[in-house]
Amino acid sequence: MSPSRLPDELLLHIVSMADQGTKLVCTRLCRSLAKTATRHLWKHPYLTHPGQVTRLFTSATAPSSDNSPQMVARSMSLASSSVSSLCSLFPEETRRPYEWITHLTISFDQFEPIPFDDILVILTDCCVNLVSLHMHNTYALFAPTLTQCHWHACVFVLPPGLDAPNWFELYLARHQTAGLPLTHLTILDAVFDERNGSLLVDTHLQTLATCCARLEHLVCNGFFTDMGIIPLAARSPRLQSIALYLPNNISQSNTISHASIDQLAHSCPRLVQVVCRGQSRINSDHAFRTLHATCPHFIYGDFSID
Q1: How far is residue 57's CA from residue 195's CA, in Å, rounded to a whole number?
Q2: Which of 180, 265, 185, 252 minimizes the C-alpha distance to 223?
Q3: Rg (Cα) of the chain, in Å, rounded?
Q4: Which 3-state string (H, E, C) describes 128-180?
């Protein structure tokens, strides 16, 4: 059967199973596959080089005459032979591919300082349907539409000229009234101040507690105490999994007690998994009994010291 006779939903499902290279090949085949593959490529751009980031976001600010399939193809690094064939695929009203982006990954092998100021504005203004962001080895970015955000080895900085205590105060605390839709959050090996390399601490957890009442899954490492975890648990009734790790240069601490475990068990009945390693004041057996007694779905915990 010709691809043109297949329902759009089936074509989308077939293309979604392919890797990025195969999707690019599909854009050079028949008209039906090209439309589906191009839309799917833009649904989740995966950028691994600073040049790709620059091209992607530069085209967002180009005049409307340049924001065409030609620019789309160029930003996505499509072969030049495929550019002309894409020109007639999309009607005028669909020539804004940034509205197709729902997931975005920016991941580098080593730290790359992408242009924070420019991209932040574009991310907020153009990627209006963005719900999931994965970043690795660069400056951390954030958009208020996100439900899933994962930062690995990222630096949290303020744009020049803005005065705020820290990145969270600017990008999260400003949404305290309405709250953020975040359900999944990962912050690992983050740096919150380029000058002194401060770690994730209790004040950041307290800000999360205030701004992210819908939080379901949290993974982070830093220096935490009961003062940060207890308010987070009290204000996160939907929490299903939480993993709190010590900084990489610390193997053991005594800053978290059973008071935090008790609050998690009492306030988060949907908990399925709790990881809190390296805390000498937490007795593993006692923690398991507490969580099993109050959280009917609880199946996994890790409270090991070593």
Answers
A1: 28
A2: 252
A3: 22
A4: CCCCEEEEEEEECCCCCCCCEEEEECCECCCCCCCCCCCHHHHHCHHHCCCCC
Give bridge partners of residue 242 from the DSSP assignment: 218, 274
pLDDT tens digits, 202-260: 988 888 888 888 999 999 999 999 999 999 999 999 999 999 999 888 889 999 999 99
Check if the beta carbon of residue 23 is closer than 8 Å to that of residue 5.
no
CA–CA dist 49, 235 (Å, integer): 39
Rounded CA-CA distance 124/249 in Å is: 35
pLDDT digits (tens, 9 = 90+) for 191-215: 765 554 567 889 888 888 888 889 9
Closest CA to 21 of 41, 7, 39, 35: 41
Residue spans of alpha helices (H) in the chain: 8-16, 20-26, 31-43, 50-58, 69-75, 80-86, 116-125, 167-171, 202-211, 226-234, 258-267, 284-294
Nearest-CA neighbor of 246 among 237, 238, 254, 258? 254
- What lies within 8 Å, CB to CB, of 264 at 6+ separation is 229, 233, 239, 242, 271, 274, 291
Whole-angstrom CA distances from 102 to 94, 193, 230 are 15, 29, 33
- Provide the residue type at 128 as one letter: V
| Residue 64, C-beta contacts closer than 8 angstroms, at least 6 positions apart | none
CB atoms within 10 A of CB 305: 12
Q: Which string of b and e fits 150-185 if b means at least 16 CB within 10 Å? A: bbbbbbbbbeeeeeeebbbebbbbeeeeeebbbbbb
Cα(first)–Cα(last) distance of the chain, in Å? Answer: 59
